[in-house]
Amino acid sequence: MLDVIVIGAGFSGLEAAKTAKQAGLSVAIVEARDRVGGKIWSVPLASGRGFAELGGAWINDSLQPRVWAYVKQFDLKIVKQRLEGMAIMQESENERFEFPFGRTPEFTPAEKKNLEFIRDHFQAESLKPGLPSAEVDNVTLDEYVCSLGALPKIARMVNLWSQVMHGLESTEESAAWFIDYCRRNESFLAIRADDSTGGQYLRFQDGAQSIAQGIAEIVGKENIHLASPVDAIIDHGTHVTVITRNKKVFQGKRCIMSVPSTMYKEFSFTPPLPSAVREVTNGTVLGDYNKAIVCYDKPWWRSEGFNGYFASYSGPITLCRDTSVVEKSHYSLTCFVNGLPGRKWSKLPTHERRAAGLKQLAKAFNNHPDVFHPIEVFDQIWQHEEFSRGALAPVHAIGHLTKYSSVYGKPVGNIQFVGTEYSSEWKGYMEGALWSGEQGAKQVVEMLQKPSAKI
Ligand SMILES: Cc1cc2nc3c(=O)[nH]c(=O)nc-3n(C[C@H](O)[C@H](O)[C@H](O)COP(=O)(O)OP(=O)(O)OC[C@H]3O[C@@H](n4cnc5c(N)ncnc54)[C@H](O)[C@@H]3O)c2cc1C
């Protein structure tokens, strides 16, 4: 019998297995896909010019110590997010304006003041400790900012934050959930920043998935069972049996479950999870968080003085960033097609999705002729992925964050739950997945290595 069976080989599952193995325990990871990395997936470009990051891409060296330690350990080459140039704001399909990247968009003076007030409010809230109150958890983010006096255009900006941060509309998440997310992730401004103070500072030249592959080497490929979707988890009290769809059976003393909580309902648990755990996890949702990556032969937007960044109220692209890696002659714009616009876009056939994206890029970048001549295009819809069902990470139903805080993520019998959603640091990010995997495995190690009571 194994000491630990880990379900899922995303960052949290891999880190949990590595931590348990390094503590001397025997481990097996059972993973549904035929690859490791979960929502980190770096796909080689046909042109040979590096990789397209279909999932997570950005990291920070000083704020995210776990992920950065792997960059050093595996000697990975990184690239700094380019900040120079003009950014673009698209207010409607046919209205756009340019502004220096990193500044408040040029709205009217009253709107600018209002935006800065709302931004400063969230920054101040995000620096407070603890869980926000149940009262704040029982209102939507949209209701909350309207009660703060947000002007219509600024309430739409808050909606844009919710779309680009969580793949949801501001009417679909609670104000407390939004604030708690900012509290766990350094601060509101750290989440939004593209420089050394924030989450979008650095990227990988050869793909973020290199970290997953590096951890998998440490865990040992022979201990990782790919293409084995788990169906059933039976907790016998003395040990756990894990059964896959292709009828592989694993026996272990403990099980570490690293699949996002929204998907627990797809598993057969015996005995069933406690009703409070089912209520909170069945209530979580995964956002529409999609990427369309458009690769070009040359970075034409840079020569026109653009940063590559644009944000849009009209969609379907809600936000776009330059994701070039000059060292590889890789020039790309990564478009986030998120929230409600992403939900609608994801239902279109591939050619219509691409046409809609290129048409919007053309409007944003002054009808630059090169827009319509990409050399490669990727679009990745995480809601369509059977083993992810959306991204970034599960978001609680309104009121559930505070109502179920005493059970959410807590072990049940011999089952430990990990995943970026449970992290106290950089929840929703790679760093949070590593944090949670490490903490979860440490708890399992402590339980298994505790001297048993002698009667
Ligand atoms: C488009 C996008 C952009 C992002 N951008 C960033 C970014 O810039 N920076 C950043 O830090 N983070 C980013 N993230 C978030 C980051 O990818 C995640 O926070 C992190 O990878 C989550 O890791 P995890 O281990 O918690 O979950 P997952 O990666 O979801 O791992 C869960 C694993 O469980 C497996 N699984 C599912 N069902 C089963 C089953 N039945 N049996 C066995 N295995 C199963 C899955 O295949 C998967 O491997 C982004 C994500 C997306 C999708």
UniProtKB/TrEMBL annotation:
Alphabetical UniProt keywords: FAD, Flavoprotein, Oxidoreductase
Reaction catalyzed: a secondary aliphatic amine + O2 + H2O = a primary amine + an aldehyde + H2O2
Source organism, top-level taxon: Eukaryota
Primary enzyme class: oxidoreductase
Binding site for substrate: 336
Pfam families named among the record's database cross-references: Amino_oxidase
Domain (Amine oxidase) ranges: 11-444
Single GO term (MF): monoamine oxidase activity
Binding-site residues, FAD: 12, 31-32, 230, 421
Signal peptide per UniProt: none
Gene3D superfamilies: 3.90.660.10, FAD/NAD(P)-binding domain, Guanine Nucleotide Dissociation Inhibitor, domain 1
Oxidoreductase among keywords: yes
Keyword Flavoprotein assigned: yes
Cofactor: FAD
EC nos: 1.4.3.-
Protein name from the UniProt record: Amine oxidase
Lineage: Eukaryota, Fungi, Dikarya, Ascomycota, Pezizomycotina
